[in-house]
Write a structure and sequence with these properties.
heterodimer, A: 168 residues, mainly alpha, 77% helix, elongated, B: 30 residues
């Protein structure tokens, strides 16, 4: 099992984690910086191009990128031996670097939870991918939007703490 | 009162504020 913690394996997992994270946060920022602000400017007859084609495709890559970013990140923390100390925010190891990366890990975990258990179920309702009464769609869309915004807010301290410390 | 997360600008400002508080906690806890 030693090959799993070989320096090259550690690097490879970090690279997978970063690539998945680019896909995830790139799409998160696409939704918040581009798609959501643009929707009111799109004529009603053209809105289905976003709602029926682009948004479902973007949400597919978005939620799976979130899952894989978390998976590779947890493997990385395990490889480097600090998964417990970091999740305990360094309070067990009295280590500021563990605290910093731990904040990032918790923000990331909260964000991935929001993606899978709040944003995705509500987007399915809002976009009509699951059967739901028409009057329930605006509330679902609003919930999805606010939790997407929550994740955009958390992506700022999350990315800061992910690159603030370098632990090997 | 309007939810601050309805504005993208306020969302970013809140994110920066959380970042500053977090950085200070990390710097001064141990």
């Amino acid at each position: 099992m030693g090959f799993l913690t070989d320096p090259y394996a550690v690097f490879l997992v970090r690279w997978f984690h970063v690539v998945s994270g680019i896909m995830w946060i790139g799409l998160l920022w696409y939704f918040n910086f581009v798609q959501i602000p643009s929707m009111p400017k799109i004529p009603d007859e053209q809105k289905p191009a976003i709602g029926k084609v682009i948004a479902p495709a973007a949400l597919f890559w978005f939620r799976w990128a979130a899952a894989f970013t978390i998976l590779w990140g947890l493997i990385q923390a395990w490889q480097l031996g600090y998964i417990g100390d970091a999740l305990a925010l360094g309070l067990t190891s009295k280590n500021a670097a563990h605290m910093s990366i731990g904040f990032g890990m918790w923000f990331g975990l909260i964000m991935a939870f929001n993606v899978w258990f709040v944003i995705w179920p509500n987007q399915q309702k809002a976009l009509g991918l699951v059967e739901v009464a028409d009057e329930d769609k605006p509330a679902a869309a609003r919930t999805a939007m606010l939790f997407s915004r929550t994740n955009t807010m958390l992506s700022i301290p999350m990315s800061y703490s992910m690159v603030a410390v370098h632990l090997t | 009162m309007k939810n601050p997360l309805e504005s993208l600008q306020n969302t970013i400002l809140l994110g920066i504020a959380i970042t500053i508080v977090m950085a200070l906690i990390v710097k001064y806890t141990f």
